[in-house]
Design a protein that fits this description.
- It contains 4 helices and 7 strands.
- The protein starts with 11 loop residues before the first helix and ends with a strand.
């Protein structure tokens, strides 16, 4: 009987090289970024090119669909917001691209008065205020909260006519 593979099918160096290449490939794919796309999906439509001054609201709805958001103070201002983010395995996600198309309509004729496109570089970074409102009393640890109520209050069951509405008595 003849063996299917020769005794020394792979040399030690070839085996180590194959294992190293496989390990590098697996590590490289494990650290590949995850790309996510949020908001208005404009695969075929280009809002800044497709919409022209003088188009009606119905035309804009036909070409682009409903807006991502409308202005609170000026309902004749529509926003089409599109954002792409990248997340590495153990890091926070980072916005890599953002496009906001602002369509302004004339209030009287309901036609497009202006179209403006904003990019990620047009945005501003906001820093939240880190101050906190102080609370009264002292801060208790979890153990103090659990053990602090032991033996301080008692539920009286002598008048158990309404078991769902028991009142604490001190």
């Amino acid at each position: 009987m003849r063996p299917l593979l020769p005794r020394k099918w792979l040399s030690v160096k070839t085996s180590l090289a194959l294992v190293a290449a496989t390990a590098l490939t697996l590590m490289g794919t494990a650290c590949a970024p995850t790309m996510t796309h949020h908001g208005y999906l404009s695969h075929d439509a280009k809002p800044s090119v497709d919409i022209k001054v003088g188009d009606t609201q119905a035309t804009v709805l036909d070409k682009l669909g409903a807006p991502s958001q409308t202005s609170i103070y000026n309902p004749s201002e529509w926003y089409y917001i599109d954002q792409t983010s990248m997340k590495m395995t153990y890091k926070q996600s980072r916005v890599t691209a953002r496009s906001v198309t602002v369509v302004n309509f004339d209030n009287t004729t309901q036609t497009v008065a202006a179209v403006k496109t904003l990019a990620l570089s047009d945005g501003r970074t906001l820093t939240p205020n880190q101050n906190k409102t102080p609370t009264r009393g002292r801060s208790l640890t979890a153990l103090e909260q659990v053990l602090g109520t032991v033996g301080h209050q008692r539920i009286d069951n002598s008048q158990d006519s309404n078991p769902g509405n028991r009142r604490r008595q001190e």
